[in-house]
Structure formats: structure tokens, C-alpha cells
Design brief:
mainly alpha, 3-stranded antiparallel sheet, 9 helices
């Protein structure tokens, strides 16, 4: 059976006080990482040992949530590649991208979009033209300026706007 957290902390404190501990004090990075990640301190944990489970499970819950979100995005991306038109793919990409950067200007080349969206150069040229003609976007060299997010939303697939 391993040492308790209190024993490990006691050894560290003994060493910090220039005294000789019964064993070399070792605390794993995960032990010390979890506490500030959960918004606590070692001192607070010493004063309130009942918070130990909360502190040590917080990073696990955060990773689980992040992995679930990633899995959802991968499923959505898979559906996007299989079932949507080139215009929907580009509109979906622009809409999600804008939602994450909170700006109306996207600094990407046609090749960048082709790689990120997974469509051919012909569609990368044709689809933005449709959006330009309908005054949804404006394009300049290596730059897409979204003029009307609501109009852009209308070109997105139902999975994106729901």
C-alpha cells in the first residue's frame, strides 16, 4: 500500500525545514497538478482532506468532457464529408470557424480551405463565388470577410445550425 498524501506532504515539509525525512519525499506531477487545476492549494487540501477526491477527479472530468466533444466533432466531420454539398461544407466550416475566433475576417488561402474542408479546388473556387454573389462574404487575397453571418447560417447544414 502506498503512502498517504499527508505522509508525503510531511516529508516534503520536513525536507524544506532542512531536516532529514524517513524517506525521500516524492510527489508525482499529477498529484500536484490536480490541485491548482481544480482551483485549490496544497494548504487548503491539508486543512480540508475531504476535498481530495474533488481535486483529483477534476482533471479527469475535464479530459472526459474534452474527449466527448472531440468525438462529437469527429462524427460531425465524418457526416460533413459524406453527405453535404461543397457549398454546405464551406459554409459549415466558415460558420464554425467564425464562432471560435469571434472575428469576421478569416486569414486563409484557397489551398488552406481545400485542405481543411476536404473538397477539391474547383469547389473551393465555385462555392465562395455563390456566397460572394449573395453578399454573404467578400474575398480578398488570402482573406475571407464575412459580411452577414445570418445569411451564411442559411447555407449551413441542419446539423450545424441546430
Amino acid at each position: 500500500m502506498g503512502d498517504t498524501y499527508e505522509e508525503k506532504v510531511r516529508r516534503v515539509m520536513t525536507t524544506l525545514n532542512h531536516q532529514e525525512p524517513d524517506k525521500v519525499p516524492i510527489m508525482s506531477m499529477f498529484e500536484t497538478f490536480s490541485i491548482p487545476f481544480a482551483g485549490g492549494t496544497i494548504e487548503e487540501l491539508n486543512a480540508h482532506p475531504e476535498k481530495e477526491i474533488e481535486y483529483y477527479t477534476t482533471p479527469h472530468r475535464a479530459m472526459y468532457k474534452a474527449f466527448n466533444e472531440l468525438a462529437g466533432m469527429l462524427v460531425l466531420d465524418n457526416a460533413n464529408q459524406l453527405f453535404y454539398t461543397g457549398l454546405e461544407k464551406i459554409s459549415n466550416f466558415l460558420y464554425i470557424y467564425l464562432d471560435n475566433i469571434n472575428k469576421d475576417v478569416i486569414m486563409l488561402t484557397q489551398n488552406d480551405i481545400m485542405d481543411l474542408v476536404g473538397i477539391n479546388l474547383k469547389n473551393v473556387s465555385r462555392c465562395p463565388k455563390i456566397l460572394r454573389d449573395n453578399q454573404v462574404i467578400e474575398t480578398r487575397r488570402n482573406r475571407i470577410i464575412v459580411r452577414d453571418r445570418e445569411k451564411l447560417r442559411q447555407y449551413c447544414s441542419a446539423a450545424i445550425i441546430s
